[in-house]
Amino acid sequence: MGYFSDGFLKAAELLLNMDDATVSAIQATLSSTACALVCAMILGLPLGFLIGYTNFPGKKLARLISDTLLAFPTVLIGLVVYIFITYRGPLGHLGLLFTLPGMVIGQTILALPIIVSWTAQAVENLDPRCRQTLLTLGAQPMQLALLTIREIRYDIGMVCVTAFGRVVTEVGVAMMLGGNIRYHTRTMTTAISLETSKGEFAQGIALGLVLLLIAFIVNAALSWFRQKGRV
Questions:
Q1: CA of residue 40 relative to chain centroid, distance
Q2: Do the Cβ atoms of 40 and 91 come closer than 8 Å?
Q3: Which CATH architecture has domain 2-230?
Q4: Cα–Cα distance between 33 and 39 in angstroms, integer?
Q5: CB 69 within 8 A of CB 113
Q6: Inter-residue contact 214 to 140 (CB < 8 Å)
Q7: What percent of the chain has pLDDT over 70?
Q8: pLDDT score, position 3
Q9: Is the pTM of this model over 0.85?
Q10: Rounded Cα distance, 112 and 99, in Å
């Protein structure tokens, strides 16, 4: 087990000395994840609210599609996006393949079903008597919608934190669309995979420790939102 303890010592050294490759992987991970989450929120929150709040033809089908996409394999998302942005694809002229923007597209698609489905579920879980009471008190449609959003604000926070945790730890999309290019598109998860396959455990352990710290922060945020939601 000597190599294991040596790996931890070297990992600590890499983190303390702010190793360029390690810092680059952390920056690429956080920047692409943050951009993907913002894009998914802009698209997914209104769509999820619309699905949960209104009744329209095809609502059940929309929910079924969104819920099905929750289990969409990440490598399949990577493959579909790859086909579109590869140099021979319809979007190949944009030069998105093996770039951070290309990764963001795939990660946005990964996060979108989580935000849509869980936002719709949060709206549907509201006590229907609240809506009836507000209507009785003379609330206008816009006021009713805004008050509904206010009631589920902590649920929305939980949804966004969960989506962040899902995206920041994924490998397939980052590997296929980013190409795992050092100092450019290499993320923490792809770096861990590569370094471990090479038998170089130090950087993998260092990045793993950072991921554990992120997981702790994400879970702490989820716990906070759950507690606030019960108040």
A1: 8
A2: no
A3: Orthogonal Bundle (1.10)
A4: 10
A5: yes
A6: no
A7: 91
A8: 57
A9: yes
A10: 20
